[in-house]
Amino acid sequence: MEYVLAITGASGIAYGVDILKKLPSKKVLILSNGALEVAKYELKGNVSEKSLKGIADEFYEEGDFGSPVASGSHKFDALIIAPASMNTVSKIAAGISDNLITRAASIALKERRKLVIVFREMPLSTIHLRNLLTLSEAGAYILPASPGFYHKPSNLDDLYNFVTSRVMDIVGLENRLIKRWGD
Ligand SMILES: Cc1cc2nc3c(=O)[nH]c(=O)nc-3n(C[C@H](O)[C@H](O)[C@H](O)COP(=O)(O)O)c2cc1C
Asked: Is 130 domain-assigned?
């Protein structure tokens, strides 16, 4: 199995980092330039760009159209965009493929592979809602980074685990990251 994780320039980079840590191999990481900018503010040097690349099996920059994931003939199983900026959401909904992330999303949709969009934005404009609906209608899974509280979170890791668990459920990965309702 090959999982592609794209981290874009939305607040909530920590959600993407948590997913990256917990995905099994083979995990391919793409960071947008926007993500690198937001990471400077949100990761406070605790997690450097270099260390993120080190967690992944493969790493590509957003401009690398020569990478395998830029082609539909290369088979990856799922593309997870977490966090997904509204910029990236809008471009994918419009069919724009101007960087490796939007290109990989376009491939996931046309090849009917799993595309998981984890967004954090709030509030949402009508345009954001329309774009998310367009992606959902095209087959994408839309996950607000909106953790539940019934597992009684006591720290940030508990909140990240909730979101990561739901992502892993969708891409078909067994996990016990949270206590499930009814367990
Ligand atoms: C500190 C910081 C936080 C940001 N947070 C968000 C956000 O939560 N959602 C969003 O859509 N854009 C946010 N932006 C703006 C995006 O980074 C910007 O639109 C960028 O062009 C996104 O590029 P990308 O989609 O290629 O990553 C933020 C920017 C900065 C510097």
From this structure: yes
pLDDT score, position 49: 72
CA–centroid distance, 175 to ligand 1, in Å, is: 30
Q: What is the CATH number of the domain that holds 99?
A: 3.40.50.1950
The answer as to whether 183 is a domain residue is no
Ligand 1 contact, 86 CB (< 6 A):
yes
Sheet order of strands, 141-144 included: 58-61, 27-31, 3-7, 78-81, 114-119, 141-144
Residue 87 alpha carbon to ligand 1 centre in Å:
7
Helix, strand or coil, per DSSP, at residue 181: coil
- Cα end-to-end distance, the chain, whole Å: 28
So what's the pLDDT on residue 45? 59
pTM of the model: 0.97
Please give the tally of structural domains in the chain. Answer: 1
Q: Is residue 41 part of a domain?
A: yes
Cα(29)–Cα(101) distance, integer angstroms? 10
Instruction: Domain of residue 159: give its range.
Output: 3-170
